[in-house]
Amino acid sequence: MMPTGHAEAMTMLSAARWVLRTLNWLNWGVGVPIVLIGIVVGFIYPDAFLHAAAGNTGAPEALLGWLRIALPATAPIILFVHIIFTRLIAIIDSIGLGAGFSLANAQRLRTIAWALLGTQLIDLAVGLYSVRVGAQTGEYMGWGFGFSGWLAVLLLFVLAQFFRDGAAMRAELDGTI
Amino acid sequence: MMAIRINLDDLLWQRRMTLTQLSEAVGITLANLSILKTGKAKAIRFSTLDAICRALDCQPGALITFDAAVADDDRSAPA
Fold it and tell me: Which of A169, A172, A173, A177 is the best substitution to test chain B (most B C-beta atoms within 10 A)?
């Protein structure tokens, strides 16, 4: 007999899978055009950007420099987010097959932790640069330091190890009569 | 190769009992008993051993034996 709430849990996982797939499409569908537009405007049409920015800020060159550095620098985040979402989908699929507590999922959690660490490092570097540019231009660049992402990275590494140990115990129990 | 032998087949034959009957008597699935019988099990719980010994009226040593010849072969085999 399945445990109480199993059907509800499966429905929730199925919904989570759908949400993750949609978010990953949005990640590519919105992320890539934003980066491409930033590169095109920053490197091919810089004069048009400087002209438009001149009316809003006293230091349009600093803003152009930010556009040229910050947007290409954030491009790897699209790939990291793709890695996070696809690994999460794979974990959900394995739960559906009744093989959630496995070494493969421990490895997937570790990969997610590394990908999230990558996004955090890029966020920190671009964020600090944005604050510097913001001080020059007087514009608020929309960045503030947060602990939650770093805490999530730490938790994921701990969980990955927890899963690895649990999966090894599970493998031992599999042959126990 | 493991030198531990499971003599479930012999014990069942001596008691004129089938694996299905033993499965019903001890409350362990036929699949799990088959794994035990064919020597594919990695470990056996004391509770399982207790149930089988009660059902077959035997000692654990009658069910599980150590094959010294296999152990000697393993020791003399090149690494």
Answer: A177
